[in-house]
Amino acid sequence: MGTNLISDVQTLGLAAAAPRCEPLARPPWLSEAVWPFPAVSVRVDDANVAVTTGGSGPALLFVHTGLSSIIWRDVMSMLAADFQCVSLDAPGTGLSQRLPHGRIDIKHSAHAVTAVIRELELEDLVLVVHDLGGLTGIAGVADVPERVRGIVAVNTFAWRPSEFPFRAMLALMGNPLVRELDVATGLLSQITATSFGAGGN
């Protein structure tokens, strides 16, 4: 990866391919009581990315890279009465398909943000980022700035980590067992919870 994450995303050379959007079947371990929103699968490059939408009104796009969209459950439930709430699971996390190389990749996660905005035709949106979602979300909207009204950054990074422990953490978060345990226990969401409400399930 180069020194400029935004340039890395823009030079993937894959943004021109139009993603496909299809309904996503709910896995047996994810009950409607735990996750009350429908999800679709958006084809982004070589992986299917899970996207959840709920409510109607001005668009809010919630991004967290590493954990699944369930971290946004309480916030989305509160805001769906007045806003179109959209969240995505970064490639390799949550309900999204694992990447062929088997690890979560910030560059491809940022590209997924751009692709989802285009596929869902989101306009005048407010981007809400938390934790690692700050890196991927802001890099992702850099390719479509005309569609972004504002950015809300909650407990996020102002730097791009690249050391081995960081990569190991992302690999662990993308593990299917960890994903299902997080849904069952809410432990990872609680650990990263903020007073804003992200993760406060």
Task: Give a description of the structure.
The chain has one domain (5-191): 3-Layer(aba) Sandwich (Rossmann fold), CATH 3.40.50.1820. Helix content is 30%, strand content 22%. The protein has helices at 5-10, 73-79, 106-119, 133-141, 164-173, 176-185, 187-191; strands at 21-23, 39-44, 47-54, 59-64, 84-89, 125-131, 148-156. β4, α2 (73-79) and β5 (84-89) form a beta-alpha-beta unit. The protein is globular and about 35 Å long. The model is unreliable at 1-19 (pLDDT under 50).
Keywords for this entry:
disordered N terminus; 201 residues; seven-stranded mixed β-sheet; 30% helix; Rossmann fold; single chain; alpha/beta; 7 helices
Short description:
By secondary structure, the protein is of the alpha/beta class. It has seven helices and seven strands.
Task: Let me know the average pLDDT.
Answer: 78
What's the level 1 CATH class? Answer: Alpha Beta
Supply the CATH superfamily name: Alpha/Beta hydrolase fold, catalytic domain
Shape: globular
Number of strands: 7
| Structural domains: how many | 1
Question: Strand fraction band?
Answer: 15-25%
Which helices and strands occur, and which strands form pairs?
Layout: H1 5-10, E1 21-23, E2 39-44, E3 47-54, E4 59-64, H2 73-79, E5 84-89, H3 106-119, E6 125-131, H4 133-141, E7 148-156, H5 164-173, H6 176-185, H7 187-191
Parallel strand pairs: 4-5, 4-6, 6-7
Antiparallel strand pairs: 1-2, 2-3, 3-5
Helix pairs in contact: 3-4
